[in-house]
Amino acid sequence: MGRTKNDTIRGASRRSFLKTTVIGGTAATLAPLYPALGAAREIARPEPKPDIKAFELDEMTISDLQDGMKSGRFTARSLVEKYSARIDEIDKHGPSINSVLELNPDALSIADALDQERQLKGPRGSLHGIPVLIKDNIDTADRMMTTAGSLALVGSKPAKDSFVAERLRAAGAVILGKTNLSEWANIRSSHSTSGWSGRGGLTKNPYALDRNPCGSSSGTGAGISANLSAVGIGTETDGSIVCPSSSNGLAGIKPTVGLVSRGGIIPISHSQDGAGPMCRTVRDAAILLSALTGVDPRDSASNASQGKSFTDYAQFCDPNGLKGARIGVARKYFGFNDAVDALMEQSLDVMKKQGATLIDPADVETLGKFDESELLVFMYELKSDLNAYLAGLGPNSPVKTLKEIIDFNDRNREKEMPYFGQDLFLKAEAKGPLTEKAYLDALEKNHQLARTEGIDATMDKHHLDAMVAPTGGPAWITDLVNGDHVAGGSSNAAAVAGYPNVNVTAGFISGLPVGISFFGRAWSEPTLIRLAFAFEQATKARQSPRFLSTVGAG
Asked: Angle 299-301-302 (CA atoms, 0-180°, nearest 5)?
């Protein structure tokens, strides 16, 4: 459903790479983060391009939009019209972020019906009439396609909504459109460029257009940060919610596996896949998560969420939520960038000033021991899960198996593989069934090392409420020739364990956002939301993007 390459491909070579590589170099300059600390230097912040007009809905929250609809200033229809016009203005023209693959042709009629319902019965809840963008690997049974960005699935229109789409519609949200992504959620090639798909082309980072939005939920990250919709949905297998949230200045929640059903979402790995909110504020992400939970017969993992989920995660948004918390500092995830380390030290100071107790270090001792087994599990589960998804599409599916996708890519090499190939698809196709010992052993190893001997052991040892680490570094320059230049990241332990992870903006380095991750035990979303919200309120770090051509450009 979504992966970055910072933790699942390079293994030992990645760890040595981190020791010598720094994104932006050690001379990267910290923007002022928390003025009261006075620890960072001011940098010149270029003005936005003059052709970017101010937008009425910039940085508006769900509550702002609901207040506007209640007062009559907005309607659901007017919100759809305004966001659609903005998408045309800056996503398809102007800076051309290229984050939205297609708009929902029924969005206006859906909005009209919701406006009428509001007048007659009142709103269903917090999401009534709120436009949402969803990633193009999430099924919708409407006039939009679901393609994972691949030309091989152009024309694929599932007969049934995904569980996520069902829940959004039931909550009264308007599915505004589908966002671009790293094709096949970044599982096709070990040399890919995040944010690129054969169907959609390249998505750009709205803070600096030559920088990468990270993947695989690239379009959702860039589009929501650029205020092209109220809120958005991404998916993650390892890093693909939290990394684009970090690189695009968003709050992103990667839930416990099973909290949000994967039914009707194009898969990578049933042991790690998940969908979750990507929003400009933690409260909006909590509101959106509230609509997505529930048991789904199509996803057996969702059975475990019974009695462990909430219908209102916004109740945990406590501005004093850091007071009394015991937070472990996962130091093994530090050290890849001096400027990021300095930003993290300021973030830790904020937590202490807000009343948290830091246990430093509090490392997951098994880090690095499940890199290869994680990828092996992916290869087995990708073949099995993707073939099952394609079979479920029925006779109208353009391709029926992973093998047919591989053949399609070979036949359409100029359009599908102009920059990178499909080595991971080939490895997956060579794997046998999920009954093979190699797969079963790798899966057991992952869970033992990431859960029992990993996050659980660390939290038990230090009596922790959560752990923190830098989500990643500032966005790298997009390179279609050599692929991604990822230096560091902290998503893998929570991803392999299937545990929750929340990113929130920590600050900016040379005008580029950098996030901090709060992660912990299974089903600990309430605690993580409480901590992330309190940190967000103490720092107010997010800045809206400026659509610069490059870092430092006017």
From this structure: 75
